[in-house]
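User: Continuing from earlier, I have the next pair ready.

Assistant: Great, send them over.

User: Here they are, in order.

Assistant: Folding the first of the pair now:
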Amino acid sequence: MNNEIHGTTKQISYIRLKEENLNPLLRECIIDKTNMRKDHKDCLFSYAGNQYSVPSEYVAREVAVLALDNVLFVYCGGEQIATHKLCLEKGRIIMFKEHYKAIRYANNHYKNVLLVEGLDTISSEINLAVYDE
C-alpha cells in the first residue's frame, strides 16, 4: 500500500483511491507491452535479447511488436507482417526462409539466384488455430 503523500496531489494515494469509488471493469482487458522496433537492413529486429526476421519488403522500416503469451506479433503500417514463437533463450536469431525470398544477389551474373538458397528455416510459422486449442 502507498501511504506516502503524493508530490502532485499532496494527498495519500491509498486514501484517495478509496474515495474515488471506482467501478470494477466489466469487460476482459488484454494488457501487454507494444514496442516499436527498427528493422535493420538484414531484415532482423531485436526483441528481448534475440533477433527476429520480417519479410524483406519491410527492410529498414519501423515495426510494432506485440508480445502476447509466448507469441510475438509484428505489424507495419497497421498490417500484421510476421508471427514468431517467442524464444526464451538469449542471443538467438529466429528467422524464416520465406522472409528472404525476394532478396537476390546484386551482381548481374547471379541476378536469378536467391541470396538464401539452401538456407534451412531456423524457426517455423505458428498455426494460430492449433495454438488457440
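And the other member of the pair:
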Amino acid sequence: MSVARTVGHPDYTQSGTSNFIPQYWSGNLQVKWYNATCLPEICNSDYEGEIKDSGDKVYIRTVPSVTVNTYTKGLALSYEHLEQADLELDIDKGKYFAFAIDDVDKFQSDLALMDKWSTDASQQMKISIETGFWSDSAIYAGMATYNTGATAGYKSNSFNLGASTAPVQVTKTNIIDYLVDCGTCLDEYDVPRTDRWFVMPMWMSGLIDKSDLKDASMTGESSSPLLNGRIGRVADFTIYRSNTLYSLTDTVVCTYAMFGHKAALTFASQISKVQHIPISETSFQEKMRGLNVYGYKPVKPEGYGTLYCRQ
C-alpha cells in the first residue's frame, strides 16, 4: 500500500480515484515447503514392469515351504505336492490433477506460472499418495502379528511395541532401545539386516538428535547428524523422517512409526503421465493435467511392523 494521506488529499494509487502511482507484483514467488516422502525408498517395485501393458491385476507367485522329515534306514519316503496360493496385486487406486491458465493471464504475467504450478502439482501428488498409503488399514492388517502390539517377538513375545490405549512413550533416553527392539522382532523372523528401514515422525527424529546418537560414530556417518541433518543408519535401520505417518488421538496424540525390510511392501504404478495441452477448443486457455494409477500390497508380512508411540 502507499503512504498514508491527509484527509482531503487526492489518492493517486492504482486502486484509488486516479492511476498515477502504479502498483507492482513481486517477481519472486513465496517459498513453499513440502512434506518429505519416502515410499520409493521403503517399497520395492519388483512387479511394476509386469503390469505396464496388462491390465489392473498381477498375480505374484510365492515359494512354498518344504517340510524336512527325519530319516531312518529303509524308510519309505513320503513326497509332498507343493502348492501355495498366489498373491494378487490390484492396481485399483488413482490420483489426478488438472489446472488451466487463460492466455491473457499467461501473457501478462512476468512468471512462468505453468512451470511453477506443475512442479507444485507433482509434489502434491507424491504427498497425497504417501499419506493415503500410511492411513490405509490394509497396511496394518497385512503385517505379521508378532511385529506389533504389547507382546511382539515371534519367538520371545517379549517386546512392547505399543497397543491401542497403551502407546509406548518414546524419550531421548529410550529411543535407541526401541529401535533395537524393533530390529530384534525382524531378527526373530530371520529378516535380513540389509535394506531395513524405519520411518518416524519428526518429533521422534528430534529425540535422536538429542540422544547419544549425536555422536557421529554411533550412526556410521562421517559427521554428526546434528551438523548435516542426516540420521544415517541406526540399529541396522536406515532412518527416514516424515510428516505423512498416520496419527490419531488416543487420550494423547499417537503415531504409528513404521519399520521393515524393502522386500516386505511392493508398489506398482500402471499409469503415470503428465500432459500439456497448449490449445483449448472451447477457450483461449493452456492446460496441464496429470494422472497416476497405482497399487500396493504387503507381500512379506513378517518383513515389517509398527511402533505405536507417543511423545
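Worth noting for the second one:
The longest strand covers residues 285-298. The helical segments are 39-42, 103-108, 113-134, 137-141, 175-187, 202-210, 225-228.
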